[in-house]
Queue: 3 jobs
Job 1
Amino acid sequence: MTPTDVAHLRRCVELAREAVDAGDEAFGSLLVNADGDIVFEDRNRVSGGDSTRHPELTLVEWAVANMTPEQRVASVTYTSGEHCAMCAAAHAWVGLGRIVYAGSTAQLTGWRAEWNLPASPVAPLSIREVAPGVAVTGPISEFAADLRALHARAAGVTL
């Protein structure tokens, strides 16, 4: 992890906070090109009823519309939470580069179980299980407390 990686993950956590403030789930993501420029960012937007409005999937759609295959493979995706199976598959199918995530699916699944919340309707697979050819870095422990608090707030859980 470089200081730039940490800064990008901090921005993802800020986007996740914006999502929770707007009534959405606690996820935020950004895409960085080969030059190190942030070219796209988004936050979760599922509160409108479309449970597929994940920022990682929106990022994939943006990359396909705006980047060549060569640019996509040289990019880095930063995200507050590990991609779900849907987003990991989309990422791999379009040939995006490395993923760096702050919090893992295993952490989130554990927190939700601790809070007696329903399990996800999708199997909690890791990116490595869904897209084994994608280079992945995460989770990053320094973000765990902030992410836990954000996910709790989004779920209406008092810590």
Note: The CA atoms of residues 92 and 131 lie 6 Å apart.
Job 2
Amino acid sequence: MQQNKLTARAKMLFLAVMTLVAVVLLQWQPGPVVAQDDNGVQIATGSSWQGASFPVEDFRGYSSPFGYRTSPTGQPTREFHSGLDIAAPMGSYIRNWWSGKVVEVVNDDRCGVGLVVESGYWDHIYCHMLGDVNSASGQKYLIDREGGVLIRDGQYLPAGARIGRVGMSGRATDPHLHWGMRYNGEWYDPALVLRAMYGEQSQVSQNQ
């Protein structure tokens, strides 16, 4: 019992430290980038988080949190869910959370069509997108002709850039973006990042 309490305290301390680390690291990123929609309306602003963008347009809610959950395919087992599922209508545009480099164009049975973007020690992962994955000259690329999206492996993406659209590729039962985050190789709850982003934004707004 005592060991379980110590383990729970250690996890809470780890999450608190990681949130602080995230805020400090993102303060070091160059140049503020503010994501805007087609009408010039700001989607994500902030102070030390001012370069970050909320990853989905036409947001409808969170359909599955980070952590262990019952299998969505009906299997009688619990499984680790490595990201946050963000519900949006089919075809809604997805925006890049933070400026970085595409290190993988994904096409598999689980993630479906997706991207992995590297931003310093952070990897942000986007799954269940519309489009196809092809290759030319040994380089993979994601193409969504209807959405006007073409993203290549190795490409640099600014924060807030449209990088794809919400779909149901891979293992998905409804339209949503699976948004995963790794820090220094360890999975991290995207909801904690969002809380830090918008908590700071609210504080900045109140001080204006």
Note: Residues 23 and 48 are 7 Å apart (CA to CA).
Job 3
Amino acid sequence: MHPLQPVITSPVGLERALADRDALIQMCLYALDRARSGGVVERLEEGLAAIGVQALRPDGERFDPAWHEAGGALPTEDPALDGVVAETEVTGFADHDRLLRAPIVIVYAKKTP
């Protein structure tokens, strides 16, 4: 075995590998928030997706407070749109089924007379 190759056959080695993975994911999210190039953003998102971390942009989906954070409301007269995500302001991320960061969204809300 190469001296720099990580040993993940023991519980301690696995724990360290998972902690390192989490740290790298957090660094990628930090970089994504500051990236100015669409190409860099795309490449970082592709790399994260390859290890199971998905970008969450729930436009058009029903608002779910367990997975989304409301950042505002957009009035609508269409009752079918009430409670539907109109736009994602800040992209969220999930690591498989674990929410890392909720997307901040604008939600359609029934216009009051």
Note: The helical segments are 11-34, 38-50.
